[in-house]
Design goal:
The protein has 136 residues and is α+β, with helices and mostly antiparallel strands. It has helices at 3-29, 100-134; strands at 45-53, 60-71, 77-80, 92-95. The chain has one domain. It is found in: Bacterial flagellum basal body.
Amino acid sequence: MSLFKVLDISATGMHAQTVRLNTVASNMANVDSVSSNAEDTYRSKQPVFQTILEDSINQPASGVRVKEIVENQAPLKMEYNPNHPMANDEGYIYRPNVNIVEEMANMMSASRSYETNIEVMNTSKQLLLRTIQLGQ
């Protein structure tokens, strides 16, 4: 495998982790949002990754891409709060199904994966530079 191919694979990994970090940020930003019905309530989102395959030999060697971003179908949190301005006729408000602890773990994992891809790129760059220096 070419070292240039390694750089491409790392770049796709960094892009995927950036999308993951952005969805985590969106989930965390909406953790305290409320609604008067279940249809309008924010739902936690998660990216789904897919391996990019080599066209000619169908082997996983070209990186990763974001296939889609799916909404978590876990039940929403219903809270009885009849004095809230967003309460429905029965006095309930709906809160998102965002688990802040899970989101923090996802953020740490995505951040470390991003850092690992940077290290792979830096190591590949150093190997390429040393290869060039061999010819001098």
